[in-house]
């Protein structure tokens, strides 16, 4: 029987949220192919928080391959080897990973080792006989490319926040073998410098509040940070290329063609006119709100809801209203 | 230190994408082409390393159509020493085929470092650099934002969700570069003049199509026209109501 391999992620002993998205996509594909879902998690220990719930999302079999030192942090070479070993043998039609920082690094290594193609950032996937049909953004979302992958297994990374987790209960049997080799490889993550506690990554946050030149100066981003905070840990602050290039905000926060392409549930563009390269980076958001002084700004053409006005008046008012909701 | 920088000719990021009559490719009429912005960080880093060492060689390698000679000349004008164009009329959608062609070219080059941009802004494949590393059996760190090199050993930083990984690696190695690594310089007039005389080897190649077939290029789904809720702070309560009751996102 054919199978889809879902490669999951954990950090500090807890399953990362994108893992549910990967299992959900794998389940959907496995059903189309008439196959099973095998989930593989590489972890420092066998008891990873959240693993027991994976059956609910449609995993038939979950393997936690563990090693206390090799998998203590992300080990690119050891992880690639472990996934490749698992995916060799012709049993798997596809290997699915999240297009996260780790997945983006791991997927091409695995594909090259297996000698098969990789489709990055898939937003849709289906089966056509034995082949996989994948839709993925190109030109940073200004167009979509629909491709057919004929190799087996096909390696596919999935754009975060697109495959909404769906519960599809399966038996979810669990096995927890330990990794035999203690070799971490030549590339070693010596340390992970943590970002300030509670800060969310723009690429994965369900709500993104982004600012542009309309903020006038770096210190004014405080009004956006206040708004993001009002959403209670669900929002991240993003930025346009103009303000990143001006050094107001870190490049990790940039949304657009030379920054991150984001698909949050809610994207609030504040003082951003809406250059083509910015629109490319956020147009797949579920709902877009624009706040801008210029009623003719291109951002209003893609926004679901717009307010024309002074952001320094509108945004604090919005922050107040959002706080009331949660209160 | 001998460094290879792999660059790609891509449409400018301000390009309006128009799909060609074949329904599968970009209509290139009127499109301005540039050096892939992420590759500029790779080139800048290579030039700085050579300058710091006081000696060395920076070779630019590109795979693309004949017009990519201009892309290579642009890199030579910025300061690279020589260029190689693997000239292919068609670049396949399967990045592994591109990686195989580049790996074959780079294999016996004696490079200490092979640098790539982390992604090309046209096909957004996010894969050719690390694939080349695997094919050559070299260590690889992707999407680096900081780099320090010692004797045969380097330390790089890369951004992950909610943090920064500090990564150690031996070289020769393959690195892919992210925005934030450095501030790329602009070409000087002197550099532009000098570039005309720098060696540029053109090697015609034919690439297999690989295992990815393009079925269609499609416009992104249309966003239905939105509405202006109102003007100024007075419109905020209505916006919040719409987000809750109509859009159901709050």
Walk me through what this model shows:
The complex is a heterodimer of chains A (327) and B (250). With 327 residues, chain A is an alpha/beta fold. Chain A has helices at 18-33, 76-87, 101-114, 222-230, 241-245, 276-282, 299-302, 311-326; strands spanning 3-8, 10-11, 14-15, 36-43, 61-66, 92-98, 118-122, 124-128, 131-138, 143-149, 154-158, 173-175, 188-194, 207-211, 235-239, 266-270, 287-292, 305-308. In chain A, a hairpin with a 4-residue loop joins strand 9 (131-138) and strand 10. The model of chain A has no long low-confidence stretch (mean pLDDT 94). Chain B has 250 residues and is α/β, with parallel strands linked by helices. Chain B folds into two domains: 2-204, Rossmann fold, CATH 3.40.50.620; 221-250, no CATH class. Chain B is built from six helices and 13 strands. In chain B, strands 9-8-7-10-6-1-4-5-11 form a nine-stranded mixed sheet, with helices on both faces. Chain B has a two-stranded antiparallel sheet with strand order 2-3. The mean pLDDT of chain B is 96. At the A-B interface, helix 2, helix 3, strand 7, strand 9 and strand 10 of A face helix 3, helix 4, strand 7, strand 8 and strand 9 of B.
